[in-house]
Structure formats: structure tokens, C-alpha cells
Specification:
Plipid/glycerol_acylTrfase, Lysophospholipid acyltransferase, ACT14924-like_Acyltransf_dom, about 45% helix, 7-stranded mixed beta sheet
Length: about 290
């Protein structure tokens, strides 16, 4: 069992840092550095910085859970996490629909949406990286791979899968920018949204529901991201890539809290990425700059 879930985390680390499958030495050095940082953080601050050991324990536990109980299991940890949805009346109970969301925190966003939307759309599928399958189940995701510049790889199969699901009358969740935002002057700054939600909604005639979780990451995430970006010559792709190593810690630190998640009135198929982004960010006044 230990070897199995450690291999799972190895795959996660390779994907986050875009390491080759045979880069065993680099992966070993990375795990050693993360372990040392976690050890020092436990000693100084009473909690791990990256939470590698805790992540592996969580993945090991989830591997034994039925796929339809994954979300409730995650949200039941640490005394229970409460997700408070607002505007679910805007989400049609049947028929094709695209939910276009901001992406403020990382893995927690997947779980929060799945919990909120599960009551009204049990046919929900999420466009996400393969790592999300551990938290949502493989049947709930449309898997997508992202390169170092935050561009989707092999977009044709992904688009075909999205079109097929909507063609069957399903609900599809897309994170507009596909990237967790950075912070500037106390507000989140999400990158320009991609055209995926616009194109697929126009092609299928599906209305688009703007959505936004009211959450943000800890100051440690943003400080790590800023430091990595500075060391990388100002490249935010490097900052975001390195900061993604804190996604598990950010998820674990949110468990036990209460979070609002908002859904807005439907927008027409083919609404521009700029209009979708503005509508979604406007659901949580003051969070985005």
C-alpha cells in the first residue's frame, strides 16, 4: 500500500513540475528537498509547508473509498467542511450547460464545486488534470494536460469529449483561465480566460453559468509563488509551477472551514471569454482586482 500511493504522488510531482518519466534522480532530490522543508516547518511552525507525507496519507485513504463517496469523504475530514452554494437556481436541472468558473485556490475548487453542484447535476463532469480524479473519481473528469506555459496539450480529444458530454445533455465545469491566480495589492489577479467555454457553448448551444468560489490561498502560497517568479527572471509560469507544490497543503488547511460558492444568471452560448471572466469575478466583489 505505501509503495502504491507513493508512486501516485510521484506522478503528481512529475506532472506539476513537468519532469520526464525517467527523471528518477531529479524526482528523488525533489522529494528529499520537500521532506526537509516539511520537517523544518513542523519544527518551527507546527505544520508542514508542502504536506507531502499528509498528501500521500490522504491519497492512500481515498484509494479505498467508493468513487461516489470521494467528495463527502474529503469534506468530512477535520470536523467537516461546509460549502454554502448561492444561485443554484440559475443552474438548469436538465439539459446541456457549461459552468465557467474562476479558479482561486487549486484542488479545493474542484471539490467545492462538486459538492455544491452534486445536488442539482449528478451528470457533472469537470475539465481537469488527471490529479483531480483522486478527489472526484475518474468518471467525473475530462482529463487535460497542461504544458509549462499553461497551454493545453492534445486539445482535440478534450474538445471532442466535452462536445460528446454536452451533446448527451450533460453539465460541464470549465475553469476559465485554467490557472490559479497570483495576488497583487491584496486582490487576486486571474489570467485572461481561454476560449474553451466560449467555443464549446457556441458549438453545442449550451447556456453558460458564470461561477466563483469565495476563497483564496494562504500567504505562504503567494510568497512562494512570488519568490519562485523572481528567481525565474520574472516568469510567472515558473512561479505558478513551483507554487503548485503547495496545492495539497492549501487543500488540507481549508478543511474544517465554511466557504461560499456563487453561481450567476445564465449567459448566451458563445459569450466572449472577457465577458465570462467579468461576470464570474463580479460574483465575489472585492476578491479580484
Amino acid at each position: 500500500m505505501i509503495a502504491s500511493h507513493e508512486r501516485h504522488m510521484d506522478d503528481v510531482l512529475r506532472a506539476r513540475l513537468h519532469l520526464a518519466g525517467d527523471a528518477k534522480l531529479r524526482l528523488g532530490l525533489l522529494r528529499g528537498a520537500i521532506g526537509a522543508a516539511d520537517g523544518a516547518s513542523r519544527l518551527l511552525f507546527g505544520k508542514p509547508f508542502f504536506a507531502l507525507r499528509e498528501s500521500e496519507a490522504l491519497l492512500s485513504r481515498l484509494a479505498e473509498v467508493a468513487k461516489d463517496e470521494l467528495v463527502t469523504t474529503v469534506l468530512g475530514l477535520d470536523g467537516g467542511t461546509t460549502i454554502l452554494p448561492h444561485g443554484l437556481e440559475h443552474v438548469p436541472p436538465t439539459g446541456p450547460v457549461v459552468i465557467a468558473s474562476t479558479h482561486p485556490t487549486g484542488m479545493f475548487d474542484f471539490v467545492a464545486h462538486a459538492a455544491a453542484l452534486g445536488a442539482v447535476r449528478r451528470d457533472l463532469r469537470v475539465v481537469a488534470n488527471q490529479e483531480a480524479a483522486a478527489f472526484l473519481g475518474p468518471d467525473m473528469i475530462v482529463p487535460v494536460r497542461i504544458d509549462r506555459e499553461n497551454r493545453a496539450i492534445s486539445t482535440k480529444p478534450v474538445f471532442t469529449a466535452m462536445q460528446a458530454h454536452l451533446g448527451q445533455g450533460g453539465a460541464l465545469l470549465i475553469f476559465g483561465s485554467g490557472r490559479v491566480p497570483h495576488r497583487r495589492n491584496g486582490q487576486l489577479v486571474e489570467p485572461a480566460w481561454r476560449s474553451g467555454a466560449t467555443r464549446i457553448s457556441e458549438l453545442t448551444g449550451a447556456p453558460v453559468i458564470p461561477a466563483a468560489p469565495d476563497a483564496r490561498n494562504s500567504r505562504y502560497y503567494y510568497r512562494l509563488r512570488s519568490a519562485a517568479q523572481a528567481l525565474g527572471g520574472g516568469d510567472d509560469n515558473i512561479g505558478a509551477m513551483v507554487a503548485s507544490l503547495r496545492y495539497a497543503a492549501e487543500l488540507l488547511e481549508k478543511l474544517g472551514g465554511r466557504y461560499d460558492i456563487h453561481y450567476g444568471p445564465a449567459l448566451p452560448p458563445g459569450t466572449s471569454p472577457e465577458a465570462l471572466k467579468a461576470a464570474a469575478e463580479g460574483l465575489v466583489p472585492g476578491l479580484y482586482g
